[in-house]
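Person: I have long wanted to understand how a fold can be written as tokens. Underneath my words sits a plain record pairing an amino acid chain with its backbone structure tokens. Those tokens are not coordinates but codes from a learned vocabulary of shapes. I should like you to check that the lines agree and flag anything odd. The protein I mean follows directly.
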Amino acid sequence: MKFKLLIIISLSFCANIFAQKNISCSDMNYRDDVQTVLLHPKDFDFNKPVINLNNMVEQDDIDNFTFSFNTYKNYVHYDLMFPTPEMMPKLSGNYLLVVTGENADDVYFTRRFYVVDEKAVISTTMPRYPFDLNLGKEKQEIDLDIVYPDLFNSRADQYSNVTIQQNGRWDNAVFGLKPTYIYPEKLSYVNNAKTVFESGNQYIRINTSNFDNRPERTRTVYHDDNGYVVTLFPDTKRNTVAYITDEDLYGEKYIYMELAGYDATKEADYAWVEFFLQWPQYMLDKEVYILGAITDWHMDESSKMEYDPQRRGYQKRLLLKQGYYDYMYIVKDKETGTASLAPINGDFWETNNLYHIFVYLYDYLQNYDQLIGYKVIRSH
């Protein structure tokens, strides 16, 4: 069964290519039968899909697949390892993985990945308090120094820019960051309100890797005609309690089965997982979403919670493959579109967050942004 076409395009040209097809240049699923898309380096399940520069052609087929075995929900698991000799990057930068049917207009899903040509040296610091206390004493500020070859020959102050992403979120990411100070030996990005992030709180977790033993934080597990159903104990707001140190996966997910000898790619089942957040009153001007890799970091109808006045809280049902999931409740203002973790989860400087830093340099001869540096830092 060889019927899916894989295409890789540069995000620099993505908008032009898909402008008439209503396709987003981001991580999206376009069919209801597409579930649990994972894109990561081999053997590093939680890392962002960043690869080093080499050569590339544009497309290939995905023909490595297995059928699910002994599961209530039947599915087909597809697997592709790239780059391959037939599919290697030529230029650094941002790319979009596009998976389609035999008809290239039949898009199944898209995922971003990054090709880096390591030239920049990035150093970072995180002060205990932001430079402007009016921004909030519990916020996390990221200060940067960046050095790379031919710093001024490349007119770095004009042609360079920086992106900073907190965990897997794009809604609060910083784009096009310019230096605060320019020195002979480096560019300095300090005392900038754009690099001050809401700290939030540790992610909540669920583990559905073993349905025989009731999973962590689970009230009931049963199966009906549609398969397994997992109901969780109600969650409550955490913004009025003290910060508690706890390990998490920075909002990521990990597909696995607890039982030894099982292959999660084809033997892990799916379950409808029911979430409930206790909340005394419906918020007229706000919307509540489930945030994390559990919902592909989207705040849309697929992750939006509905208010149940009888139960006095927000509820949502997600179809999830067996494994470990981090999640967080986030509140979005209907008028401004801005989202915040603080109203439900609190805001604590001690929170462990991952920050992904991307450094770009515009190549005016070839008319594209080179990705010349990438670094991951942990807040604590």
Observations:
- The mean pLDDT is 88.
- The chain has three domains: 4-116, 121-199+353-378, 204-345.
- The two ends are 47 Å apart (CA to CA).
